[in-house]
Every structure is written in structure tokens, then in C-alpha cells.
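Below is one such protein, fold included:
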Amino acid sequence: MSNGAQPRSSPGTRDLASSSKGNLLTVSPVFHFTAGLGSGVLSAVLLQPADLLKTRVQQSGSSSLSASFREILAGPKAIWGFWRGTAPSALRTGLGSALYFTSLNALRQHVARSTLLRNIGVVDGTKVQPSTSSALPKLSNLANLTTGAIARTSAGFVLMPITVIKVRYESNMYAYNSIIGASKDILKTDGIRGFFAGFGATAVRDAPYAGLYVLFYEQFKKRMSLVVQKVGVPGAPELVMAGGTSASINFGSGVVAAGLATAITNPFDSIKTRIQLRPREYRNMVQAARKMVAEDGFRSLFDGLGIRMARKAMSSALAWTLYEELIRRAELPWKEKSLS
């Protein structure tokens, strides 16, 4: 069989849709946490320069990407300056991915097994099966949208203090020499509330972003898998993706899904950055949006869109592909044991 795929009838690749709802194969939540942590840290370190440039562009509304790039190069540390704030960024993204993937998997497994949700139409019972390019269960569009939004918002709230520290540390508006110094200054000037500055805009950004991302991601995976499998051909067997093919499908789907979701939610990201950098000047989401439009024009809501789209597309694709591959490989022994 071509295209790096194998028939479902091959040993260790039998369709698991016939399994009862209580027998969906899963690995330990600890492994989901570890896989999410590793994928998040890796993507954060590799793409920190893009995140730093996005923060610099958004902080004023008047700085261009090229101007921010030249400013960092002219600094005392030049190239290493692009990785300023890597520690809080890696901590936030790593823990965020770990919490997100762990909670998302738990939610998806719960929804997939729920008879009640299938009966009321939230989940299509015919789709409760592992995806052909991953080990995660397939859900309906509504379930993908909802579980993604809930998981991301919950993780975002827990990690909000680290997010605020990261944004301030990356900005050149604050002369922080260390993460501890940044934390002390925020606590002294803004109190505990300062660590949660911009959460409203963050939640409004993250909930639809994560929901739309999972929705688009699963839809693109499904369509790309159908193209590879040629399922539409009468009598053609449904196939399970081999490692390289599934990774390519997951990565491509992640890039497209992240690009679309980022473009839709960018205004909330711009507002969130202003609130976190200048909480006394930008007090809440509505007031901040009005002030930005009045002073810098409507385009200020889309500051940093290009760099954010590029960064989110790559970071989401890397994180999801690595996570799904780790989970898929971890579940192979379980599948082979159940099919032997």
C-alpha cells in the first residue's frame, strides 16, 4: 500500500471503533502532562524571537516589525537579545501545554464515553473512535469547539501570573533584570491583581482561539486523511496512517488551523498586551479597545498580526504534532496487546 499508510486489517492497526465506550485505549494522564510539557517547552524556546518581536510591535502601536528588529540588534546582547524572556516564556508555554493537553484529553475522553451527550446530539456516536492520524478520539464539531475552549481558558487562568511577568520582561518599557525582580515590582505597584491584568482579554482571546483551533485542526486532519486514504473509492479499505504520514498531516493541519484562528482572535491579543504593559492606562478590555482605536486607529487592533500568525502557526503545529506522535507511540503497546 502506498502513501505510507497501512490497511486497517494489518496486525496492530485494527479499527477500534467497535470497542465499547469504556474501552477506549488511553495512557496515563501523567504521560499526557509530560508530553504536553515537552512539546510546549521546545516550541517556546525555538520561537521566542517571534514572540519577543510581537510584544515589541504591540506595546506602542507605532513601532514596525523592522524597527523592532533593528532595535534589538543594536542592543548590548544583539543576537541573544532575541531570546530575552525565554525562561518565563518556556515556563508558561510548557506548563500551559501540559495543563491544556491533560485537561483537553480528559474532557475529550469523558465526552467520547458519555451516552447522555450522544443521545442529545452533542457527540456523534459514529465518530467516537481514534483518528486515523492520531490516537485521540474523534468528536463532533461542537464538542471540539467546546472542549478546546474550556481546556485553554482553565489553563490560562492558572498561568496568568507567569503570562504577565513574561510580557513585562519581554517589553523594553521595564528595566527588569530578573524574573524575581519583575514579580516584586508587579506586586509592589499593582498588588495581587496586577498578576491577573488582562485576564478578561486573554480569556476572550484564548477561548475562541482554542475552540476554533481544535475545530479547524480536526476538520483539516479529516479531509487530508481522506485524500491520502482515498476512502471515497468504492471498496477501498480505511487506513491507519504510518508515523511519517500522520506527522505530516498533523503538522500541516496545525499550521492552517492556527493561522485561521489567530487572524480571527488577534484584536483580543493586542488589547491584552496593552493592558498587561500599562494596566493603569488601559483599565479593562472595552476601555482599552476604545482608547486604542481613538489614538492609534483601527489597525492597532491588528498590530503584530503577521508575526503572531507565523509564530502561532509554527508553535501550535510543532506542539500538537510532537504531542500526538508521543501519545500515538505510547499507545501502540496498548493497542497491540488488545488486538493480540
About this structure: Strands lie at 5-7, 239-241. The chain has one domain: 27-339.
